[in-house]
What does this fold into?
Amino acid sequence: MLVVMEAGARPEQIDAVVRHIEKMGLKAHTIPGASRTAIGITGSSGTKDPGIVENFPGVKEVIQVSHSYKLVSREAKPDDTIVSVGGVDVGGKGVVVVGGPCAVETLDQTRTIAEGIRRGGGQLFRGGAYKPRTSPYSFQGLGEKGLEILAKVREEFDLPIVTEAIDEESLRLVDQYADCIQIGARNMQNYSLLKVAGRARKPVLLKRGMSATLEELLLSGEYIMSEGNYNVIFCERGVRTFADHTRNTVDLSVVPAIKRISHLPILVDPSHGTGKRNKVVPMSRAAIAVGADGVLVEVHHKPEEALSDGPQAILPETFAQLVTQVGAIAEVLDRTLQPALATAR
Amino acid sequence: MLVVMEAGARPEQIDAVVRHIEKMGLKAHTIPGASRTAIGITGSSGTKDPGIVENFPGVKEVIQVSHSYKLVSREAKPDDTIVSVGGVDVGGKGVVVVGGPCAVETLDQTRTIAEGIRRGGGQLFRGGAYKPRTSPYSFQGLGEKGLEILAKVREEFDLPIVTEAIDEESLRLVDQYADCIQIGARNMQNYSLLKVAGRARKPVLLKRGMSATLEELLLSGEYIMSEGNYNVIFCERGVRTFADHTRNTVDLSVVPAIKRISHLPILVDPSHGTGKRNKVVPMSRAAIAVGADGVLVEVHHKPEEALSDGPQAILPETFAQLVTQVGAIAEVLDRTLQPALATAR
Amino acid sequence: MLVVMEAGARPEQIDAVVRHIEKMGLKAHTIPGASRTAIGITGSSGTKDPGIVENFPGVKEVIQVSHSYKLVSREAKPDDTIVSVGGVDVGGKGVVVVGGPCAVETLDQTRTIAEGIRRGGGQLFRGGAYKPRTSPYSFQGLGEKGLEILAKVREEFDLPIVTEAIDEESLRLVDQYADCIQIGARNMQNYSLLKVAGRARKPVLLKRGMSATLEELLLSGEYIMSEGNYNVIFCERGVRTFADHTRNTVDLSVVPAIKRISHLPILVDPSHGTGKRNKVVPMSRAAIAVGADGVLVEVHHKPEEALSDGPQAILPETFAQLVTQVGAIAEVLDRTLQPALATAR
Amino acid sequence: MLVVMEAGARPEQIDAVVRHIEKMGLKAHTIPGASRTAIGITGSSGTKDPGIVENFPGVKEVIQVSHSYKLVSREAKPDDTIVSVGGVDVGGKGVVVVGGPCAVETLDQTRTIAEGIRRGGGQLFRGGAYKPRTSPYSFQGLGEKGLEILAKVREEFDLPIVTEAIDEESLRLVDQYADCIQIGARNMQNYSLLKVAGRARKPVLLKRGMSATLEELLLSGEYIMSEGNYNVIFCERGVRTFADHTRNTVDLSVVPAIKRISHLPILVDPSHGTGKRNKVVPMSRAAIAVGADGVLVEVHHKPEEALSDGPQAILPETFAQLVTQVGAIAEVLDRTLQPALATAR
It folds into this structure.
């Protein structure tokens, strides 16, 4: 932390700040400058916040410099983490494509789409059994029945399952039925849920909140890891801005930013990120080009009959083209498409 | 919903859209224009989303026009709702001031501050027993022990209690110990929690999420009301923007916007909204001037020793001045400070 | 500036940064910490940017701490500046209300509205002769003919004139005809125009850009002052955010933030700030309550016939109520409505 | 335009709106719905704004549906426009890489960097002679002397020149010396300057403003085209959001959005967009992958001595790698690197 004094701060004002910092058990380093003095703070203050000196007379501002994430950081673990989702590696040299419907509706619908994902070259299947919907009157998902459908589809097509949990009860069920627990953007700072996810056995796909900074996303990952679950995958899905040509603004620069600070893998979800079917393929290519470890896209064979988010789902045939293009881009970066699980059939 | 066709859309493209809308059981109203055609859609589509026609050839864009909130709306209930929080009315002609520490730390600390709130003219007491913190390594609150302290303080000072619940378990306890259940900004779209709050007996103070639109805030209120709890109070606490002179940007215009659409009361929290002690009093005045039903502010007698958010807490003596100024502003709007509960002592 | 090293930075990496800083003629202050080292930089680097060390090995980040504004700052001039606009003081103890149409259309229209402003208690008149419009096909203003109308209206009603300049040529004419030169939000960072305004004789009303930080606004004021024109008035008119219930989000907290750092006066424009007629009066009250030196509002006697921005203009009778309410709020802050100029009539 | 009535709107309120619309010379199309009525408006209202009916009793809201851009639109010209910048095509099947320093400092510096750009495979050279700087005390560029240096460098290396104009005077000179006139983000809505650019002979590179919507960017292009200059190139350079890990948030989804609506080419500037050297190459790859017609990057052989924006400039050797990677990505999209001009030497 750095305290910047006002240009006209008097020596006794500087002293008062220094004394207060020392009283908190911290070290104060006075840095006299041409026009003003700064005071660097080092050490650990436990539960007290030295930011309080911002209200001391003569203080211009207080600047935070250290970060409180540890386990998610490359400083804690320099090498890339590879997370196994039901046998498919996420992170490392491979690139994955996760596809499936926004919501699981029926066994038939789910099987048809899963067949398209498998044939199109996807390695993982996504589909919502629990849907956090903005309106209480919208379709809220099939619940455990949806999870059962997903489990059947995994057996039939050898596609490990990624699906969202929205509270403690659904998380316990998802942990049991699926291969990867998704925490959605709206729950990124639902810390009680993150702690429960930290005690689950399955890996966690953590989506960035709609107005989360990089640091907040990392700290939410830290919540999960600090409870003992080290298999965390981040996912950029667009942030909220004034821009109105897409539903959200996909912030692809967060991918290299995370790669620089953290050892954990990161995917991009261009379907929720843009909300527009015609932008899913171009943004998927861009996601791989910027360095993401994969993409997560919505696919539906009859988008006009989808129970949720139809307008952003792509058709299975478009999905197959997406996988081809994404694979070609990956090669430019010396990466390859991750192989899908072998099937016994 | 309104479908806008491209300028060069051919008649058969327009027909295809109209037929699809009608196949969904809706009515299509074609509006021919000078350079392009628009198609109005009316009726209810159940769970299907007519927005899918955005992907039809010849369609330029699809515009949402109807809203899905009902119970929170003035169309459902024209008169202002007055919510009683432990006997103190929120909404209506009175204006309330809610004060207290960010976190309950000890009985002594809480009593000292409550005494300041009572003496300074506040009607309600706030203080966190469960703290949603960005970092897993920050102080997370005293839990049930904190609720016990709050209950004692209520008895002693006749100040009804507003305190935050962060999950199902804490909500059940808050419902039991306190007078009003706060749902924080980070949980505004934690729909599972909103449903639980909707089945609680106590009123709910629902804070606006950091990037929530007006409609999303209203729909989160709708989640609570649709479960049967009609005592909802909204609270503006700043939204996230690029502006960096305050922690968040307090959006006071949301107050008259909510008053126009909804019958529910709304408070403003300038402490979290600005994150700066020196902006709490001016923004409290502005909140009442714009038409809010009250303010919620952080008060601490020794902010430099506070376990959380010290830099934004005001001193008890500043709180007393705040109440005086807020009361004077209320009178300009033909309102008055709500009286505090009578004390037996 | 502060350089934060990575936790595992090696001593020779720290040395390299220190040596580079010193080579630029600056002083480096090494601050060893428990887990990482920080390096404070003091002195003046002239035209070179020490931020370059961010790319050095072992460097985590570089944090800017000093500001480059000088003349606008209270450190340069502790007392409030009072700017005289054609004899009416802006700043100090008085509060002003500036009213008028978005665009000057005809002499009759302008006279009618000015009469309403004068009768309603306004002290200054606003009206656009040069209109920066988003579309090239929208009405662009009457130009010099509009300035002539404004000058006539000033003579008749003793209302000094505030009007916008959009380029060098229009600024020269506005400087000649009017009492205060408005620089609009879209030109806040048109530095060539700011320099010309800095050489004009009349005061300048500088509107905050739609995505300008506090520091950028202050530096744009610095551009004007550094050319010799010390009469600068800031104006908050809403910033661009995701919120969609108003056209822009009025950031009232910028008012106390500017008052703390700068000696210059600041007004608020709730008409452009919200874009909604029904929010102009409440936000005007809030602006004065937060500490602004006045408000700038759009008034039209026939808003449904206005050539621009009709939906946000208030009627003359609403304007009169606004002045009364604003005056009552000012008294709560120990301020008063500034008297209008005496009329000879 | 669509007028949505409140649920309880009375027939006479609907009539009043319809009558007013018709009085403005427009056509009103009443669309009765299950719970509320909507009114579609068609026809041209000239300079009057039918949005005024938002203030009529019984009206819930007014929704804008038509756009005012024409010449920039694919509806006006279905085929892609290819703009020739000094003989190098921008748009079409080729992809261009524009490189050079932020600011022209000396002939030597400019020659050295230009040699690196030419050798590295760039086709166009960029460098600022006029610099719009946030602070009046920062280096403001060499002016005409800088343009002379750029002209010499073009002759020697056969690299056409893109350089920024900041006002009418500099634009006249840039039009004379350079091959493409850049209008910077801060001037995107400086309409007087856009009109002058519309009367220039050289193509215009128009950067998106920091908080400009897609529609505003298109309309600024329309300003230039409506004055007769049809050679407009758009450029995405990041928008302002709350995200703080990069200087701005690059909105790559605007590229396919523009391609869908407009026939004009679009480039991406990842240097200003991210402000971080280590993100320039990944974001350049992503820009081409999403479908941009090229990238614009800052290159400096001694970034630590650059007079402006050193921390975001890449080295000439990194530039050469960037060109190679960008070319490989282009091939995935069936595009190729545009050839550089042949040199006589």
Summary: Residues 24 and 45 of chain A are 6 Å apart (CA to CA). Chain A has a mean pLDDT of 92. The radius of gyration of chain A is 23 Å.
